[in-house]
Specification:
- This protein is of the alpha+beta class.
- It has one domain: Thiol Ester Dehydrase, Chain A (Roll), CATH 3.10.129.
- The chain contains four helices and eight strands.
- The strands form two sheets. Strands 1-2-6-7-8-5 form a six-stranded antiparallel beta sheet. A two-stranded antiparallel sheet has the order 3-4.
- Strand 6 and strand 7 form a beta hairpin.
- The radius of gyration is 15 Å and the shape is globular.
């Protein structure tokens, strides 16, 4: 099998740099891209005091959970686009990032967000010309499911 854009180290490094360093909110959350498999992308983050919603019970803020799931959904779509419609070079592929936006986000909070480290994963269930649909999952280091989500993203400028 030939090396795809999703396996391209330059693409992975660029995507990692943008999401972990250049997007201020993702940097604030401490998101780390950990799996670039377009069928099972993952990102991780560690519990910190700044992410607490209920400080007395040491639980993640619900907005943090929603933001992380929204972010992993976007990451998943970028990887799926790179897999199915690879561009000629890394910069062209990265420009897809600017061509998408969340249009619907649903989060089911299943249990309190307690833990030391969290992993968010996503699956693109549909990648159309104008809209992508994604299912997301957030678990703690004990593999306890904290929340699930579903999102729809508008894909601007796709041909």
């Amino acid at each position: 099998m030939t090396n795809t854009m999703t396996e391209n180290q330059s693409f992975q490094s660029a995507l990692k740099h943008v999401m972990e360093e250049k997007i201020p909110f993702c940097k604030l959350l401490g998101l780390q891209l950990s799996n670039f498999d377009p069928d099972h992308p993952q990102l991780t983050f560690c519990m910190r005091e700044q992410l607490l919603g209920n400080f007395s019970k040491e639980m993640l803020h619900g907005g943090v959970i929603a933001s992380v799931l929204d972010s992993v959904a976007g990451f998943a779509i970028l990887l799926k686009m790179a897999q199915l419609n690879p561009k000629d070079d890394v910069l062209l592929q990265m420009k897809e990032f600017a061509n998408m936006s969340t249009i619907d986000l649903r989060i089911d909070y299943l249990q309190p967000g307690r833990g030391k480290q969290f992993t968010a994963s996503a699956e693109v269930t549909r990648l159309g010309k104008r809209v992508a649909n994604v299912l997301m999952d957030l678990r703690n280091e004990q593999n306890e499911r904290i929340a699930t989500g579903a999102a729809a993203f508008m894909l601007h400028g796709r041909v």
